[in-house]
């Protein structure tokens, strides 16, 4: 530190070493700080203890920091007529320590990164004991403004500690960037794999749909071949079929439920009068009171017993049936 005789007065306060660099060299981290109007600095105890490796901040304060160098935030700010700072988790009951309290915690810490600072502090004490004072060397470049305070060179041990910390942080940043790039590459590979899997699943689904369509066509073809047995030669001299004769013939062939016979009674007149049935299943369902699905099942049963046969579909998609005679 500067000798008391050379310290500027309070109206021209100047720190020989920037407090942020000083704390960075001591703790190895950039911790939060509040600077009061009188120039005193206060630090959250939990921040300092965390960076120095103390697992129980409360015990660390009781063991190493006297009461005059630890306080709660509301008392410190209130003594200067200030309010609690906003943001960054500043709380009224937050324990804070002075710069001297921070140095005491550093001196009691066993963290390897604190060793250079502790060695410098020991050198300062040894120099004061031997010579009666410790004076920083003046910086090679001084402020040009008239009346500006003297600039001092940072102690070699402190400067080296900061350089090592910055180099370490750069390595950490590079390692983090490398890890992020590798993670991004893995995510991209995973995305490509997922897209390939999705494409394979879509292709399999398309193949299944195509197979189902083909099987349905085969089933329909077999059904047509099975039901489309050649009708007995028509007797041109025979009388034209009537609804009554058709129903009578069907009654002899069928031993069916009431639903099938209900559908038969509805479609027989249409087949006799028009020669074919092009009525949508929904219309037949409305006339019989049955569901569309049940009407379709009844028509299939009539086809199976060779009462009717399929003849394709109409323009509107409705199936076309004719008498199987």
Automatic annotation (TrEMBL):
Domain (Bro-N) ranges: 16-132
Keyword DNA-binding: yes
Single GO MF descriptor: DNA binding
Keywords: DNA-binding
InterPro entries to which the protein is assigned, alphabetical: BRO_N_domain
Signal peptide location: none
Matches recorded under Pfam families: Bro-N
Alphabetized PANTHER family for the sequence: BRO FAMILY PROTEIN, DNA-BINDING PROTEIN-RELATED-RELATED
The protein's name in its UniProt record: DNA-binding protein
Organism: Streptomyces monashensis
């Amino acid at each position: 530190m500067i000798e008391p005789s050379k310290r500027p007065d309070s109206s021209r306060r100047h720190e020989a070493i920037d407090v942020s660099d000083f704390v960075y060299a001591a703790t190895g981290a950039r911790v939060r700080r509040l600077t009061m109007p009188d120039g005193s600095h206060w630090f959250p105890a939990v921040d300092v203890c965390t960076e120095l490796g103390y697992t129980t901040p409360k015990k660390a304060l009781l063991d190493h920091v006297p009461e005059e160098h630890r306080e709660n935030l509301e008392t410190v700010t209130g003594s200067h007529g200030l309010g609690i700072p906003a943001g960054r988790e500043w709380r009224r009951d937050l324990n804070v320590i002075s710069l001297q309290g921070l140095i005491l915690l550093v001196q009691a810490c066993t963290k390897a990164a604190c060793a250079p600072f502790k060695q410098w502090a020991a050198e300062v004490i040894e120099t004061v004991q031997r010579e009666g004072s410790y004076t920083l060397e003046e910086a090679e470049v001084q402020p040009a403004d008239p009346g500006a305070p003297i600039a001092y060179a940072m102690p070699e041990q402190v400067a080296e500690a900061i350089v090592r910390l910055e180099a370490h942080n750069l390595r950490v940043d590079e390692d983090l960037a490398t890890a992020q790039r590798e993670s991004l590459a893995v995510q991209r590979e995973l995305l490509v794999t997922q897209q390939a899997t999705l494409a394979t699943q879509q292709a399999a689904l398309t193949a299944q749909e195509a197979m189902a369509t083909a099987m349905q066509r085969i089933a329909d073809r077999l059904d047509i071949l099975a039901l489309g047995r050649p009708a007995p030669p028509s007797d041109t001299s025979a009388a034209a079929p009537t609804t009554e004769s058709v129903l009578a013939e069907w009654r002899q062939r069928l031993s069916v439920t009431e639903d099938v016979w209900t559908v038969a009674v509805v479609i027989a007149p249409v087949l006799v009068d028009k020669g074919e049935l092009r009525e949508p299943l929904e219309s037949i369902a409305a006339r019989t009171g049955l569901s569309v699905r049940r009407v379709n099942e009844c028509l299939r049963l009539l086809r199976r017993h060779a009462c009717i046969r399929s003849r394709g579909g109409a323009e509107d998609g409705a199936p076309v049936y004719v008498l199987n005679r």
